[in-house]
Amino acid sequence: MWSKKAAAVAGGAIFLTLAGLIRLNYLFISAGLVMLTFVVLASFLDVWMPNVSIRRETTSDNIFEDGTMSVKFIVKNTGLGLGFVEIYDGLPPQARIIKGSNYTLLYMKPWQEVSFEYTLKLPIRGHYHLGPVKMRVKDAFDLFYNERIEDAVHSFSVFPEIEVLEYQIIKSRSPKLLSGAMPLNLIGSGTEFYSLREFVPGDSLRSVNWKALAKTGKMMVNETVKEDVMDVIILVDAREVSAVGGGRDTPLEMSCRGAATYTKQLLDERNKVALMIYGESVEKVDLDRGEHHLFKILTALSSISPKGNLKLGIVLKDLLPYIPSGSPIILFSSLDDDFTISEAFTNTISRGYPITTISPSSLDFEEKMNRIPVEPLLVARMERENMISEIRSFGMEVGDWKSDESVNTVLQGRDRKSVV
What we know:
Blueprint: H1 4-23, H2 26-44, E1 52-58, E2 62-64, E3 67-77, E4 83-89, E5 96-100, E6 103-108, E7 113-122, E8 126-130, E9 133-138, E10 145-150, E11 154-159, E12 183-198, H3 210-216, E13 220-229, E14 231-237, H4 251-268, E15 272-278, E16 282-288, H5 291-302, H6 312-319, E17 329-332, H7 341-350, E18 355-360, H8 362-368, H9 374-392, E19 397-401, H10 407-413
Parallel strand pairs: 2-11, 14-15, 14-17, 17-18, 18-19
Antiparallel strand pairs: 1-3, 3-7, 4-6, 4-9, 5-7, 8-11, 9-10, 12-13, 15-16
Helix pairs in contact: 1-2, 4-5, 6-7
């Protein structure tokens, strides 16, 4: 392709040649022909442009919010040509470059290899990609160039920020010297005695309590308990109403950061954790433990987008039959625009499921955006306080999470009654 410089030189050459012919000025004619010959010869020399190959390297495939990623480009001229090479790497709109540049202009010699780097930061969770790479290769005189787009796309994820917690999320009724997995005593094949019951067909003779048989004359069997870790259900409200605000300042973004933080501590304590997200439908990450499971949950949290208006009562009604009995439920929700809240909590508690609610306040974001007049905002705050008081009257723990508070603050400030 012709550059502006080549077009200007060719235009000037033609002008000088024509002017010389009109005025019979051989100097103009000579200069014009020399310039025109130079442009024509240069157009045939584009085969000697650099034959460039590129390779992108990154420090990580996944980062956390406000984390940094370093990107390195290795550019190599694999031929005998020489000339200029322009490279531009496509970035997500949310990315901010904090060091270096994603654009460079290089002069490549035969078989030369050079590199350049830049560092970017992404402030909000999600799935992103780098690329494609736009490249322009010019000849040594900067007269002609070739453009191409390299389909070198690098996909990566930005996980919700995880805060180091200073307090235990869920406390057991039984004091323990060391923090760790939350034990649950389940009736089954164990070694610790639980109770006696009458013998029923199918019981093993090894479980018969012969002393009780001698005293009462009835066949009695020993029931034992086994200790297992706790199954915790993380429930995140991703309805459309949770998108009030903008950027990182929305109830949904706060809920994702809180859910990621809670999940990390619970998994570190060797508990099993499941993630359930409701909005337009219910999405689930089944119960499991370990680092790989943390990665699955963080990936799911990074994929959440606000949509739908599924009510909490409907969600819990469908989910409770499939949740292990007695498993604590931790709900992250602004509790806005849901008339089923009281009924949902009552049914959940009556069926033996302890539930803790962490509620980011959407009114803080409304106030920042000046979308609600002062008096209606005060009324809305009073209604929210009354609703939270009503929920606490059920014996539930509720954390009223303000927009400027950390996860540690809301964990410390909530009513910390034992739920195990």
